[in-house]
Amino acid sequence: MLLVDSVSKSFGGFLAVNQVSFEVKQGEILGLIGPNGSGKSTLFNLISGTYKPTGGTVRFEQRDITNLPPDRICHLGIARTFQIPRPFKKLSLLENVVLSAYFGDDALRSEAEARRRAEQALETVGLPTDAGVSVQSLGAAGLKKLELARALSTQPRLLLADESLGGLDHQEMEQAADMLHRIRSDLGITIVWVEHIMGVLMKVVDRVLVLDYGEKIAEGLPQAVATDPKVIEVYLGDQIALA
Amino acid sequence: MGIFDFYLLETIINGVLFGGVLALLALGLNLVFGVIDVIWIAYAEIVMVGMYIIYYLNVVLGWPLVFAALASILGVGVVGLLVHALIISPLLDTPPINQLLATGGLLFFLQSFATLIFGAEFRNLGLSMPILQFFELYISFSRLLAFGTALVGMIALYLFLTRTYIGTAIRAVAQDREIMSLMGVNTRKVYLITSAVGGGMAGLAAILLVLQQDVHPFIGYTFGPITFMICVMGGLGNLLGGFLAAFIMSQIISIGSFYVSTELAYVIAFILFIAVMFIRPEGLFQRRA
Questions:
Q1: Cβ of B93 under 8 Å from any chain A Cβ?
Q2: A80 to chain B nearest CA, in Å?
Q3: Distance separating the N- and C-terminal Cα atoms of chain B
Q4: Tell me: the pLDDT tens digits for B88-97?
Q5: B13-279: what CATH class?
Q6: Label partner for B223 (CA 20 to 30 A): which of A200, A226, B71, B263?
Q7: Segment 150-179 of chain B within 8 Å of chain A by CB
Q8: Lowest mean pLDDT: which of A44-53, A166-175, B22-31, B45-54?
Q9: DSSP code per residue over B244-279
Q10: Is the predicted ipTM greater than 0.85, yes or no?
Q11: In chain B, what are the domain boundaries?
């Protein structure tokens, strides 16, 4: 479904992503892990079109999307969420999601349909659909859900979820992991999930890809990756991440 | 005493009417800055283009004033679109100084171009607008018309920004352009629309100005600086702040002219501006898009 082929990105002299290749198969949840600064978010930015790679190609459903602008990539069916929620604070909760539903599908001309999709996305993540709810009333967990609802409202086939569990307590983490699982099984959306916390991620994902210093150091089934000496070395001493 | 109060009241009313035009002038500039983060240094000269459009169509070609006025809104809207497409867009990802220099270059280009076509003479529509009398108050009809039109223009812009999807997208892009483009919004298109609407506002302001004063290639210097001052004072990019600052400035100038002199009134206004910049460099009002 998504084919990333030896993609690189350098900022000046700093190589943030170095010749990374991987494939995302239709219907799977792929975990993307790695320490801070290992290039996970940069990789997401390269797939979603925010950054242009300095080398390599990205293909989505056989189509070369390497140099397409972000809005075109969104229309083709890739949505992403951000580690730190970035809602439009001056718009209401519903307006935030209606806006992404309306513009996220370039074939969509009906405002009523945009509203319906927005309400559906809010229901999926478990947020209220009333018009009056303000974004300011949401806590950390609510804002993360809003990120997800906005992404879902664009009707993606591939969801790039960026560290969706940061800042949540244990119970909220379990719920969020469960939600990603349901998004895949109920809506049939393929997911790439970036996460610091390996424990929760390992229970949900089908495969894992590990980045370190911008390079892919391991890829495979969760159990195999968790016992890979290279991965253990990267995470050595980082007991919280492994827990 | 009674007569004196009437004069003061007249001054205040004139200040309000003048403020409406200044507020409209500030609106286009503020909109473009708020959304695109670009300052059109040649903004006043873009307004001048509209004044010449009306003069040419109305006086030289004999079009009815209403059509000439509509042509100004459309024509300057297209100018705004071209300014973005030809000058700003190629420089959007470069340091801001480049955009300032490029639109600064446009300022001299437009001045010279106007001189080439129309000469340095002062041109006007040859209209004599009536002076209205309410009891003992004398109000200039052209100022009243200008104020009314400015108000209608501002309400229309407000409705466009709050009641339409593309308007909401414009406000959202002003808040976070990266997110909007990930949500499928074509930011390049949003910038073009914003520039065209900003130009349209300048074209509307041109109508109001050409009713009240002569147009010449350097007319921009008479209202350009005060427009920039108002925008900065209200918080650059803050539409409501610019609106309020326009009325503060127009009252200072109007009342100052009444008690001392017009020249000194502008000096007072500029001193106040400098004081505001020292006390609240971000502008009087919190930035809002």
A1: no
A2: 7
A3: 45
A4: 999 998 999 9
A5: mainly alpha
A6: B71
A7: 165, 168-169, 171-172, 175-176, 178-179
A8: A166-175
A9: HHHHHHHHHHHHHHHHS-HHHHHHHHHHHHHHHHHH
A10: no
A11: 13-279
